[in-house]
Batch of 4 targets.
Target 1
Amino acid sequence: MLSLIFILFVARAFYFMAEHYRKNKWGYAVVGVISFYAGALSVTLILDSAGFDDQLLAAVVGSAVGIVTCRLTYVYLRKEWRQSMGVIKNTGTPLDSDLMANDRSLNKN
């Protein structure tokens, strides 16, 4: 039951992100769910093939890796879509350069 609730949250997050960037909403909701299960299943299979016997710990570790895989997929897609829309532009300046310039001008007076 807990995994079903988590999957709904994952699908919802990917759905609304895809809607924001005008991509296929349901397709990317499915991509989010698949990324979770791919991460969880891969670690669980690796632990099982290594002879790991504690099923509960394997499930917890698999779920944790699935969450990380899902988050990495989300961040990667969001970054790619922002760049394709021209939202992120690399200016080559530090993030606080305007604040640093204002601070220098205040110190001169």
Target 2
Amino acid sequence: MPSREELVPVGIYWDPQLRDNTRAAFVADRTHDRHAPVTFIDWLDRVLTEYARLDPHSRAALGVDPPPARGRGQGQGVSRMSLVRTSTLELVDAAIAEDSSQLGKTRSRSAFIQEAVTVGVEAARQRCSGGVLPPPPSRLPANPHPRRPLRRRATQPTSSAS
């Protein structure tokens, strides 16, 4: 689990399909991966960190389409503030700068985050049995209970006659 360092709000534009897929991917990972993050903040942190740590050519090779252009007043999506760890944001900013200097690709933090989440959603889909994400929940749990480790039965020492 990532450290509990300072969290900062970051504005992210969510188109409806990406938002639903992201919620479904988070739930799928919690269901299918014992080591998956318990909270959405931790899930987002993992996705952003993994994507930002790729080199620019590896990110480009993934072929993530840029977010759809949106016009004013179209009402297609929603901008929301999401909490992101400062160290993760530093990785994101460094990756954006690397992509710009090495590939000439410029984009906003929000667009980079959308790309990272798209990759994270696809990875979660591949981890699901049958490659199908579950239906997205209408709301994510506000304070999910941590998973309890499996209990093992204590074995009784066998007494041996001397």
Target 3
Amino acid sequence: MLLEELFFEIGIILVLAAALSMIVHRLRQPLIIAYIVTGILVGPSVLALARNGEVFEVMSQIGVAFLLFTVGLGLNWRSVKDVGGIAFAIGVGQVLFTSIVGYVIGLGLGLDSVTSVYLAVAVSFSSTIVVIKLLIDKEELDTLYGRISVGFLLVQDFIAMFVLLGLQAFSGGASVQDVMLQTVLRALVAIPIVWLTSSRVVPILVRYAARSQELLFIFSVAWCFLVAGVFTVAGFGIELGSLIAGIMLSGTVFEREINARVRPLRDFFLVVFFIVLGTHLTFGSIMQSVVPIVVFALFILIGNPLIVMLILRSLGYHPRTGFLCGTTVAQISEFSFIVLAAGVSIGHLQADVITLATAVGLLTIAGSAYLIEYNEAIYDRFAWAFRWLEPKHARVERELGERAPKIVVFGFHRIGAPILETIRHMRQPYVIVDFDPQVIRELSEIGEPMMYGDAGSEEFLEELKLEHARFVVSTIPDLAISETILGYLKRRRYEGVIIVSAKTPEEAAKCYRAGATYVIVPSVLGGEKFKELLQKQKTRRAAWARLGLDNQRAMG
């Protein structure tokens, strides 16, 4: 009879979760909100349907294990070098400053120092899964701010890994010095073992398991439990063991296949994890903590983006890039709940801190979904407020003499690089415009004419005197920027060639209507293909005549 009751209990809860998920999806919110609300409804304060707490706790722990396992699959050691110094500086700086400010806020709200430290660290982490999903939905994962955001989120994951390692050491009642010593010693022992196993043993096992899709699936699941179990026995904990298990498989060529196979299993148990979080949230506890909930939620939604914007500005980035990156840290992470849950299990925190964090998570995840979705429109609306952060437009580093640039290229990433060689062969003065300081430094080192500036600013376009160029190319697939360039040139009765970029054919059609000569759709036309297009254009006298260039000189 107990099994039948448990079956119907799980069934009713999942049906309710599915119904709420449909409503939340209709509102274009992350489904995690539906799961937490489901937990609130089935919890003791409303319907009291979740009676078998131990069963759901075990299922939620499995969900956490699979979540960290899949996160580990994305933390390829070989790709760490691609994160770059910028992502490392932002990741470490944001976690540090957010933790400091969060700690001060906690003390100001009357919380004790230990609780303030835990909450400060917890709110410094952002949800990699939520952010990447939203960026993929917007098709902006490969934009400048998308690449930077993914980079520092990766750094955050590494920091969270070491925080969990330290908490496991604390669980034994060790002092701060002992914790630091134990953490270093355990890392020195674990890293060589993990590296040797990953490089020598794992490839052989995975290659054999990959002979069958079903065998690869069961091997991956078993590997997660095996490594997590070994690390737990060694005193590291299930969470860190699951993360390491994923990292050990991340360097294989079957990482994507493993991820695809395990993801449905992870999603199912993760639903239970967030439902269990919701069961801890009662209306009485919310009313008791309403002030801390609101203050921490506002700090994460407003303070975190400002912190990231200021850090990026100090590194030379445009405030637009800083704002867009900042919107990706306006929520708390799954790691936040895991860190707090570890604090509760150790005895450092009271259980009601989970209630506070869950309510803050519910508010910030919902709010950040809208921030990321409409971040560009929000920045355009409030750009005047960030004008004081804008750097002075840099002058062209390499003198062009008295000749004004006849060719202007906006954006150097992906498409810009392949066409540079062809532009050089046009034998006309040109300039490359970008607002990525790292790109500007690289161009400066190789002696390319460049300018630092925002293509979406009409003031910058006027300072650049863009209307005097005869060939304008924008490789930035941002409709707002393309429309700004096209509108600026149209008002000045521009008669040259304008090539812009768009994400979709629908956006391309809008650009054509706005006056574009040609529109690049990166998913259809890549840099190398565009290079061929330019080379063909070079051989056509009519095109060169339209550019106002000398035919013989161009053919030469």
Target 4
Amino acid sequence: MIVIILSHTPVWVWGLLAALMALGFSQTRQRRLAHWRLLMLPLVPIFSLRYAVNVGVAFNPGWRSAPWLLLPLAPLYGSLDGLFLGRSLALLKLTRAPAAGRGRPLSI
């Protein structure tokens, strides 16, 4: 059974598996991130959510003025923006050099 599944798996899936395994292995090493990359990380989920909503609106133009969609989205956007911005600033603060022996630097 497993042999049949493996033999019918497309070739591109094996390349994707290799790339994901290489990415996962690279995450096991300790490394340093530039501050701009650290601040860019929270933008990915925010962009993904807004992209998904905009695609939905493009396919269903009636959603543009639908209160059942707009009322929950406004607080969701605001809370996610605040959450990810706060997390990003907290991580940025942790990466700063400790002053006079207080704390320790964060390695990511």
